[in-house]
Specification:
- The protein is an alpha/beta fold.
- It has five domains: 80 residues, no CATH class; 96 residues, Beta Barrel (OB fold (Dihydrolipoamide Acetyltransferase, E2P)); 109 residues, no CATH class; 191 residues, Rossmann fold, CATH 3.40.50.300; 159 residues, P-loop containing nucleotide triphosphate hydrolases (Rossmann fold), CATH 3.40.50.300.
- It is 40% helix and 18% strand.
- The protein is built from 26 helices and 22 strands.
- Strands 6-7-4-3-2-5-8 form a seven-stranded mixed sheet. Strands 12-13-11-14-15-10-16 form a seven-stranded parallel sheet, sandwiched between helices. The chain has a six-stranded parallel sheet with strand order 17-22-21-18-20-19, with helices on both faces.
- Helix 20 links the parallel strand 19 and strand 20.
- Helix 9 packs across helix 10, helix 12 packs parallel to helix 13 and helix 17 packs across helix 24.
- The two termini are 36 Å apart.
- The site of adenosine-5'-diphosphate (ADP) has 17 residues, from helix 13.
Amino acid sequence: MSDFLVTDIKFLPGVGPKRAELLNKELRIFTYRDLLYYFPYRYIDRTRFYKISELNPDLPFVQVKGMITRYYTEGKGRGKRLVADFTDDTGSVKLVWFKGTKWIMQTYVPDVEYIVFGKPGIFNGIINIIHPEIEASGKVAERISSAFQAQYSTTENLKNHFITSRTISKLLGNLLKQINFGLPETLPDYILTRYRLMGLQQALLKIHFPSDGSELEKARHRLKFEELFYIQLNLIRYKNNRSTKLKGFLFSNVGKNFNNFYYNNLPFSLTNAQKRVMKEIRRDLGSGRQMNRLLQGDVGSGKTLVALMSMLIAIDNGYQACLMAPTEILATQHYNTLTKMLEGLNIRVRLLTGSSKKTLRKEISESLLDKSLNILVGTHALIEENVQFGNLGLVIIDEQHRFGVAQRARLWQKNNNVPHVLVMTATPIPRTLAMTLYGDLDVSAIDELPPGRIPVKTMHFFDSERNKVYGFIRRQIAEGRQIYIVYPLIKESEKMDYKDLEDGWDTISRVFPSPDYCISIVHGKMKPAMKEESMMLFKEGKAHILIATTVIEVGVDIPNASVMIIESAERFGLSQLHQLRGRVGRGSDQSYCILMTSDKLSKEASSRIEVMIRTSDGFEIAETDLRLRGPGDIEGTMQSGIPFDLKIADLGKDGQLIEYVRNISENIIKEDPMLEKNQNIILKNELRRLFSKQQSWSNIS
Ligand code: ADP
Ligand code: MG
């Protein structure tokens, strides 16, 4: 039967090669299973029939019983349409088609009772239904009975080929009839009983053809449970295997470099959160098992210092460490910070980026191999084939969400031995999302900012209030402050009325003319050397204003810059706004974040702006972001390694269920780590089926 599910969809009655090709292409349905797991996006109550006299354009999809009394055409050219008067004992409504009109007239004849199904609209004051679905009323009884008509998303191309939501429903009906209660269960009996879950067969039937609301709920719950459960089970089994099988390098001593730094070079005392996280990391490093830890901490919480001290421990134990950042600017900044903080200690640090010169590369590769280089900082360049370490003991990845899984994989393979991995992210991730995205990592959080920070004031101005903002900038510059102005994109599509970077540059240089003002600019398309030069101009305080795209988003640290102006702020996601705001508020002066938006704002954009003004708590912002936009849009989710599209669960809304199944998974693995017990064979097989393709990368993280 499980072979049956991988049958090519073209063999299903009602499909055939042509429709199969469309289903492949448009909906990625290739097999019977794909169709079975193509879930409806909503349901229409089919227990209720409307009378034609009741129809009005405010109603959702409705069904009406009646007869076609006549066909005629209306309109000319592209507006030409076929109209049918559809009548019951209360009145008449127009059914309208712009396409496939010949077929319609041949198929649906006058004076036969039909059930018409569609969304009432209004045109010239007359109620109509455009492109309704029609079914002979006798046939409805033959169908698998369901009180709720499932609606499936389709595409324009499918509709043009008469594959509608209802076609899909029919195909599912055909398929379920064939299956006829022969589907193998995918969860063990004891789980079904213990957690009171509907059987798979039943759940699949009811998700497509629910006979009432509570059954539908049970079906949905079962399928969501299963989807989330296997993700968690996979992560936890993997995490467990790794921690029992992999021997990590044992960093048993905290030695002279660490102590030297701690007692002589550290210019401030650690925050409690930093101390706690260091303890967690030291415990990992000294455990003899390989560390895989995610370090979350808001912008400015002092993650770099934690990274540095961890690297010193590696060095004290005779190993090399590397620190990888997503952009050249960040890598360079890390390099500078580290070199400065390590002054006076005998530690060799080098920077490797895409623009590193050949001679430097040569020096680096030699000193990596002879182990005289202690720390290598860099961008993706670090994971190029030809970069070989002598004894890499610790890998630190900053701003992790920008690295794809494949890239992490390559880092991992650098070495036959497995280095410890610390992944740092300044994008707080809601707990339940982190459980899924980084569910096999241990998590530490720095939830406290260094003392003495003055909270950033956030304000919102409309484009029409621009002059006020310029006045404010002028006063701030007069007081010696520096200003960031960030634009969403360079070279935005001409039609869109967003101020793009180049417009911005023109305006700003007119309003703040040289020689009184110096303006510098950085964006993604600049040559690295140019970028560096512009950045330096600003960093050294020579430029008053830095105009930038989001390249400055992460990590750039310039304490004297106290104003962050974000243009077209409505176009940024919450997490991104939060990241940008984190660039200011690092010095001893009051800092400001000014959100500029167009005068008209969507409801969602307004609520984003409101959240930004209300709170500076990164976790709260992340939660809101998840709620407002859903996980699909959260930066990095796409590449973060969810192995497949979630078909029914929603990482944003099903947080509770995620925690629930994670607990269950943990208990199962605790009792049966290799899933060898008889009762768990199903689990093992399902995991293999679901995840075997990506086992290779799940070795990573
Ligand atoms: P993150 O990478 O988490 O955004 P950074 O490591 O860049 O933050 O730290 C932000 C700033 O705070 C840096 O200038 C850093 O030197 C400073 N800092 C870090 N830890 C402390 C501390 N315990 N006390 C005071 N300042 C600190
Ligand atoms: Mg940082």
